[in-house]
């Protein structure tokens, strides 16, 4: 199982400089890739560039960036510029994000998200393969000056059409906060879509919250991630099957995040995360591998474990 590290994935109340500390530690421990997620605080390309300046070896991936907010050229230009400044391969990850972020934060319409993802993935794929001296976009008259960014194209997917976009264009398909059972189902969906597209199936990765020997505050941080998915279609059914029907119903009625957090039992984290002592977490990793996952992108909980040092050290590549 390949292991990478997400320097920042979700918006929370951790220190704004914490992603850099996570990235520096991950690089020092030998993790091969660091993801710079995008959210209301961090621009993923600025963060990836800062990580490149502060680390020595790790490959960089920016995103997922919301395709309703950034056009394909902006995405590839950002990756190519980051690669030029850092001297590292830089990949990009695409996603549809949520209405709450796209419309509530950026003030942009989130319409036709599946179609927007397909269109963006196709355009980004073509732009990532173009070379210096070629038109930056067909017919523009402006020539590309920077080399390709050199990293993978990743597409975050869950629904049928997003999986088809990933299978049709990506080097890697990304899942977020999933159980081994969901991995098995989504891998089968991805393989079928790749066969229809006549392509080799992408690698399959998942962002998974991780906390080895968690303190109470560490576990709380993981549970906050779970609370945000209780009403998401496809996830709610999974949580119901895991015995959390009452909390899912509470979320559906519009309960606030703090109420949901109080209602979630600690074992809820075991549904979609890597939580427990080292032996428990490694057994959980084996379950994801058996389900068909190629890569786990660790999202280390940092509350009670600055920079996720306890977790990242325990799971460091051998």
Automatic annotation (TrEMBL):
This protein's record includes keyword Oxidoreductase: yes
Domain Luciferase-like: 11-294
Domain of life, per lineage: Bacteria
Keywords from the named record: Oxidoreductase
Gene3D superfamilies: Luciferase-like domain
MF GO annotations: oxidoreductase activity, acting on paired donors, with incorporation or reduction of molecular oxygen
Name of the protein in question: Putative F420-dependent oxidoreductase
Organism (species): Streptomyces caelestis
Lineage summary: Bacteria, Bacillati, Actinomycetota, Actinomycetes, Kitasatosporales
């Amino acid at each position: 199982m390949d292991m990478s590290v997400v320097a920042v994935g979700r918006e929370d109340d951790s220190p704004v400089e914490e992603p850099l500390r996570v990235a520096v530690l991950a690089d020092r421990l030998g993790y091969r890739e660091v993801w710079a997620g995008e959210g209301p605080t961090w621009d993923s390309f600025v963060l990836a560039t800062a990580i490149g300046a502060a680390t020595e070896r790790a490959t960089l991936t920016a995103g997922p960036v919301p395709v309703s907010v950034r056009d394909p050229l902006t995405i590839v230009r950002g990756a190519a510029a980051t690669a030029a400044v850092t001297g590292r391969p830089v990949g990009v990850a695409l996603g549809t994000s949520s209405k709450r972020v796209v419309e509530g934060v950026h003030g942009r319409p989130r319409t036709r998200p599946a179609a927007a993802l397909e269109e963006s993935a196709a355009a980004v794929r073509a732009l990532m393969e173009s070379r210096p001296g070629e038109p930056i976009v067909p017919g523009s008259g402006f020539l590309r000056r920077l080399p390709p960014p050199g990293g993978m194209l990743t597409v975050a997917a869950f629904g049928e059409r997003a999986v088809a976009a990933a299978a049709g264009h990506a080097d890697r398909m990304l899942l977020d906060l999933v159980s081994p059972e969901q991995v098995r189902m989504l891998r089968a969906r991805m393989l079928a879509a790749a066969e229809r597209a006549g392509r080799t199936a992408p690698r399959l990765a998942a962002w998974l919250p991780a906390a080895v020997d968690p303190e109470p505050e560490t576990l709380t941080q993981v549970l906050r991630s779970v609370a945000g998915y209780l009403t998401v279609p496809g996830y709610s059914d999974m949580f119901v099957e895991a015995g959390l029907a009452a909390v899912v119903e509470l979320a559906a009625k519009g309960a606030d995040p703090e109420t949901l957090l109080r209602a979630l039992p600690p074992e809820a984290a075991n549904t979609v995360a890597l939580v427990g002592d080292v032996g428990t977490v490694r057994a959980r990793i084996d379950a994801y591998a058996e389900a068909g996952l190629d890569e786990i992108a660790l999202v280390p909980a940092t509350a009670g474990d600055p920079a996720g040092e306890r977790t990242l050290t325990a799971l460091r590549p051998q």
